[in-house]
Design brief:
The protein is mostly helical. It contains four helices and no strands. It has a domain of 61 residues.
């Protein structure tokens, strides 16, 4: 029960952080700060790039945490199944490898957020 409560607190903190972010200036271009822009517009552009990086980090971090939680339970069950019957080894390896796709999807989302694709 305590772990579930900790997840709710973490989700609340992430949601508050997202809503607390200031809006990026629409006057800045995607290629960098504009030459004739004011200092406030340039600052808004750099701030928005920082928040984009934070979003990419959150995407990878939460994907990694989710994968770790999933694999901890799946791995224990797979070892128990293999201990009972050696024929369950292949199935156990497949089920342990499935959560890794979540991290791969986290990397894909982070690349899309950063605009690298």
């Amino acid at each position: 029960m305590k772990n579930k409560q900790n997840l709710y607190v973490l989700a609340g903190i992430v949601i508050m952080m997202i809503f607390a972010l200031p809006q990026a200036s629409a006057a800045a271009s995607d290629n960098g700060p504009v030459e004739g822009a004011t200092a406030e517009e340039n600052s808004a552009w750099w701030t928005s790039r920082g928040y984009i990086a934070v979003g990419a980090g959150i995407a990878i971090g939460l994907a990694g945490i989710g994968t770790g939680l999933a694999q901890s339970h799946i791995g224990a069950a797979a070892v128990g199944a293999v201990a009972e019957d050696q024929k369950n080894l292949v199935n156990g390896l497949i089920f342990v490898a499935i959560p890794e796709t979540i991290v791969i999807l986290g990397f894909v989302i982070a690349n899309q957020i950063m605009g690298l694709t």
